[in-house]
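Database export, one record per block. Field names are fixed; values are copied verbatim from the stored entry.
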Amino acid sequence: MAFYRGRKDSTESDWRVPSVGMRWFGIIAAAFMAVYGATGVLRNDLNVSLSKSGLGVHLHGFLAWLCFVGMMMMSVGVVRFLSPPFNNGMFDFDERRRRFGPMFFVGLGLYVASQVIAGGQS
């Protein structure tokens, strides 16, 4: 299983393809996000924030599940985008972005929407 840093149609290096280390970091971060979301939903208290500063918002019930679904969609999208190529060892950035980008952005929309709805209810 070779990690090739080129595009499918050429053997030239493509600067858009993340390095192996950054790909592993992204996969581990996505797994952490999935575990954190699952833990929060199971406790019925998911604490999330849209910014680095601030306390965030505690989500319960339906909004916690909506946020968790968004987190899972983002995690799966990131893992599928960054995972090692299985076909011929080539990482096709454009094809992966086209296939898995929408999943990530729909998940991001659900993540943001759940917090916006919770902010409007308080």
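Remark 1: The CA atoms of residues 77 and 101 lie 7 Å apart.
Remark 2: Confidence is low (pLDDT under 50) at residues 1-11.
End of record.
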